[in-house]
Design a protein that fits this description.
The chain is an alpha+beta fold. It has helices at about 5-20, 20-55, 70-80, 95-105, 135-145, 160-195, 200-210, 215-255, 265-290; strands spanning about 60-65, 85-95, 125-130, 150-155. A 4-stranded antiparallel sheet has the order 2-3-1-4.
């Protein structure tokens, strides 16, 4: 396509937006409302996924070493665990460290446990993390069969429920996002279709004077693109501003808990770019699908 022709298409698409002010407003409004819903839902789902990942990262296997095991036996057990394919890291935690952690976990009530410092009844522990948190149960079952693994703890019963909930929430979130996007495309397509139907004579005249389908499509293609971009502006402003205040508020509430929201930067910039791309694609798709029926021979 020649540069002069492309400039003409750009110019005509912008003029058309101005000429059809109310229809442009209606189309942009449809894009805006839809992208606000999509954006809010993305914020919620991405942060829920972040929380899920944080919870998964906290999952660990605690292997209590048999009190009869000597130093060589402990090293041998650790080496055997490290050779398990699913294992990521293995850290040795002596019983003195375990007692200190127990005392700290009880706060002021933990003072009573200091009586055990001279005669510590706890076991040495190997703290195991898997490469994939969902392999925790399978890995724990393998470790239980090893010699000198007196007790293996990984939150049995609770872990299974946690993984099931995370998997279910991710699947539901994916289905809802896809459904919302298709709904958005349908709504915006219908809105843009009304705009194009109001200009069907313009299309018919262009065809009568010999314009090709590609030549006719380009202004509408660009029009849909501009509508999508314009419709993304307000959602970006609203969601960015709201997320700033929400992030600052919840960051204080979640302080001291090993759960964090996605950082404002770069998350909001990534989301803004995503909304612009979605808006542009939906606008272009809606325009092309709507104008196609008028170009059939």
């Amino acid at each position: 396509m020649k540069a002069r022709t492309l400039r003409r298409h750009f110019r005509e698409s912008l003029k058309s937006l101005a000429r059809n002010g109310w229809m442009t407003f209606a189309s942009v409004s449809a894009v805006t409302v839809t992208l606000i819903l999509v954006g809010v839902f993305f914020v919620i789902m991405m942060n829920l996924n972040k929380v899920a990942v944080d919870l998964e990262e906290q999952v660990e296997i605690r292997v209590h070493i048999d009190v009869t095991a000597n130093e060589q036996d402990q090293k041998s057990l650790q080496q055997k665990i490290e050779k398990i394919p699913e294992v990521k890291t293995v850290r040795f935690s002596p019983k003195e460290e375990e007692l200190d952690n127990l005392i700290k976990s009880f706060g002021e009530d933990g003072e009573a446990y200091k009586l055990f410092e001279q005669d510590n009844p706890l076991n040495d522990v190997l703290v195991v993390k898997t490469k994939n948190p969902t392999d925790t149960i399978k890995t724990a079952e393998k470790i239980e069969k090893l010699e000198y693994a007196a007790k293996v703890k990984y939150g049995q019963g609770k872990i299974e429920k946690l993984f099931s909930f995370i998997k279910l929430s991710r699947n539901i979130g994916l289905v809802l996002i896809v459904g919302l996007l298709f709904t958005a495309m349908f709504l915006i397509s219908n809105t843009i279709k009304i705009t194009i139907m109001a200009r069907r004579r313009e299309i018919e005249i262009m065809r009568l004077v010999g314009a090709t389908n590609t030549f006719i499509r380009w202004p509408f293609f660009l029009e849909g693109f501009w509508l999508g971009i314009l419709g993304a502006v307000l959602p970006i402003v609203l969601i960015t501003t709201s997320y700033r205040y929400t992030f600052d508020f919840l960051a204080l509430k979640l302080k001291g808990i090993d759960i964090e929201l996605l950082q404002f930067n770069p998350f909001v910039y990534q989301l803004s770019g995503l909304l612009i791309i979605i808006g542009a694609l939906i606008g272009v798709w809606g325009s092309l699908m709507s104008v196609r029926k008028f170009l059939k021979v």
